[in-house]
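Retry 2 of 3 after timeout on previous attempt. Resubmitting structure tokens to design endpoint.
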């Protein structure tokens, strides 16, 4: 059992103050790492089932070959770490807009930091995922225009509840076409959402991709009952 509450790091950013804290949760009886942006909770190590399932479900639909994978949003690292469990993954490029979050992993302030930074396949890139999509240059600053086999995105709360209004155009047919253009044929775009399946958004995915499905991911809530998130998986034709 660690200290009841400890602020591990914080930094001022263009979108607010981001902070990392660790606390002992008496209900779950475990240490919990949490990230806040000002007063808004962004993520918690108590709820990571769907973040891991984003990688598993997304990569299950990917081509059966060596994979170049992009993760949008590093967070506490659960999507990236799960992707590395797939032996087909030969490179994992993780795009994170907040350099503080990258530093937390490199400084081993979060539990998965040592694992992610020690894996030679992992490349942490400081950048704006959505601007990279808009620009059409791709995600690898050392290989402009490079395509990938899968993009796993976990940044906004959902297509309708975004962290910044500048992200909204991404969730249109035009924006999604840009991400499809960054994929090899048969490549996968997978998206985490905190909301239930949105049929209107799935219809937009259908406009761009050869197939699209919304998977409900249930998980036990340590405070009682069951919760769920949604993982969308869309495959380029």
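Retry 2 succeeded. Sequence:
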């Amino acid at each position: 059992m660690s200290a009841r509450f400890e602020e591990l790091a914080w930094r001022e950013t263009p979108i607010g103050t981001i902070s990392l804290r660790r606390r002992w949760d008496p209900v779950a009886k475990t240490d919990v790492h949490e990230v806040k942006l000002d007063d808004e909770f962004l993520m918690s190590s108590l709820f990571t089932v769907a973040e891991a399932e984003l990688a598993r479900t997304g990569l299950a639909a990917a081509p059966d070959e060596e994979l170049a994978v992009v993760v949008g949003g590093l967070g506490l690292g659960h999507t990236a770490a799960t992707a590395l469990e797939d032996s087909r993954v030969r490179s994992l490029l993780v795009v994170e807009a907040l350099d503080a979050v990258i530093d937390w992993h490199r400084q081993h302030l979060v539990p998965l930091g040592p694992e992610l930074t020690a894996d030679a396949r992992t490349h942490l890139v400081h950048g704006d995922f959505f601007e990279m999509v808009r620009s059409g240059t791709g995600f690898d600053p050392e290989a402009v225009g490079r395509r990938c086999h899968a993009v796993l995105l976990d940044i906004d709360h959902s297509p309708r509840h975004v962290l910044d209004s500048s992200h909204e155009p991404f969730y249109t047919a035009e924006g999604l076409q840009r991400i499809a253009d960054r994929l090899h044929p048969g490549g996968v775009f997978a998206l985490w959402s905190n909301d239930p399946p949105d049929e209107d958004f799935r219809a937009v995915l259908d406009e761009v991709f050869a197939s699209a499905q919304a998977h409900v991911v249930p998980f036990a809530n340590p405070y009682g009952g069951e919760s769920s998130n949604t993982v969308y998986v869309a495959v380029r034709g």
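Attempt log closed. The radius of gyration is 17 Å.
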